[in-house]
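Lab notebook: predicted structure, single chain.

Context: the supervisor wants predicted structures on file for every construct in the current expression panel, including those that have not yet been purified. This is the next one on the list. No modifications to the sequence; it matches the entry in the shared construct table.
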Amino acid sequence: MKSKIVEPNGYSLIEMMIVMMLLVLFGLGIFMLAATSSTTYQKLVEDKETDGELRIASSYLMTKIRQNDRMGAIRIEKSAINSEDALVIEETLGNEVYETWIYVSDGVLREATVLKEAMPSDDVSFEVAKVDDVRFGLQDQSILITIEKNLETITDLTVTLKSKVTINE
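Prediction complete. Output recorded below exactly as produced.
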């Protein structure tokens, strides 16, 4: 008679521990990869939103300035709302003189159109873009515009005008 060689019927404890340890390491690796990808994706979305808001603000400002390039129509003034720079565009419609104020309030670029003697407020304005700050400067017959949002800055916007711009402090 032949003797039967006994074959093991299961895994040993050490083999099972090794497999479990490999599974845990593999799971941690997948989790870390997913977490990193998620963070990177969120950062990309935020960057795209920031770039979009900066583009909207810069395009809007340049268009408004170019549309109103008339003698005495554009001036830079301190806003009564927050004492920051505001772009003021004056126009006459019928017998009334209106001023369009473009300013930043609470992280939003706003436009308010009011009668000449009235002061603008957030209640009568509409949102243009979400930006942190807009500054205006003058150089010869050009308006220099600096727009900031989330530590990103557009500083090289220059609009050269046919007319003169004034600064009222």
